[in-house]
Amino acid sequence: MPLALLALAVVAFGIGTTEFATMGLLPQIADGIGVSVPQAGNIVSAYALGVVVGAPVLTGIGARIPHKRLLLLLSGLFVLGNLASALAPGFGLLFAARFLAGLPHGALFGVGAVVASRLVAPDRAARAVSKMFLGLTIANIVGVPAGTALGQQLGWRAAYVAVAVIGLVALVALALFVPHQPRGPQTGVRHELRAMRNKQVAIGLATAVVGFGGFFAVYSYLVPMLTHLTGLSDSSTTLVLALYGVGMTVGTLVAGPLTDRALRPTLYAGLALMSSALVAFYFTVHSTVPALVTITLIGAMGALITTPVQMLLMAKAKDAPTMAAASNHSAFNLANAGGAWLGGVAISAGWGWASPSLVGAALGVAGLGLAFMGDFMDRGGSRSEVITGARPEQVAAPQSQSG
Known about the structure:
- This protein folds into 2 domains: about 1-185, MFS general substrate transporter like domains (Growth Hormone, Chain: A), CATH 1.20.1250.20; about 190-403, Up-down Bundle (Growth Hormone, Chain: A), CATH 1.20.1250.
- The chain has 16 helices and no strands.
- It has helices at about 1-25, 25-35, 35-40, 40-60, 65-85, 90-115, 125-155, 155-175, 190-195, 200-220, 220-230, 235-260, 265-285, 290-315, 320-350, 355-380.
- The radius of gyration is 20 Å and the shape is globular.
- Residues about 380-403 have low confidence and may be disordered.
């Protein structure tokens, strides 16, 4: 079990590295393919678009494929997309390659979360899922700075080659350590889509888009906020981003056990504390030490939301959790786009560089309201069972924390 979870974490590490390292290499990419930096920024959008499209589409296509085989196929597509990115001669093909690299992102996380939850007893499922997510948070501490430095020293193409190598390592680890998990008797894209019609799934996805949008409203503008308001140099911001990753790692470690004990209260606490930290950052951003402490708290509370939302969606989708789990990562990418856009609107309106903090806090409170609404609606109907048993056909008894 630990080696299987480690293999899944390596997948998440590669995904986190390729997604965020691109942002730090935009000037080098722009020079390399002969476009402006804003135009090169469109390749970030291409990856996000690939995630949004690929999560439901690839999960639906693979609905009848055993989970381990599907993980291997998706990992192979991830490797192919990053190799194509490294070899792309111009902007058009690079845009297409980044879209291709983003396609397996959500499906890998969704299938991986279901596989991880079935490696352990039902009362430890969230801890297993959070251990997979650790790969994503550690990527922000190690993978992204290393990939950015590699791209700056050896050229941006080297960074994508390195990510492809990580993908190959993950593929081998998955083949060696992840056990075969047969699909249940009721499988197929129609079965998965029926589960997606559950109102609780829709509210859970909306909570992720709106609530996590608050996190990205600040994360997207963190560097200019630190240089303009805190007074840090450009060279120091990389270390601060790593500190953000440390906070996310701590939050992920805490989220697993708390979600296993009390899912909805963990989600409520994460959204409420993240919103409070974002309000505090509006005032602390002008002083170095308080700003750094608050940044760490924002990272931790943002990560605290991820696991309970993932487990909530898997619970509400009942015995077809894979597409719901994958669509969660489409929701996070929509949150990234929406939060960044609203934060930019506030800055452009002349509200100041600190204004994304208040925008983010408002989004966090709105997400909390959606989470409460989901709980209120749940009390009026049947509460969903958490499907996390060792075998797909084995249904765990209803647990109060899954509601």
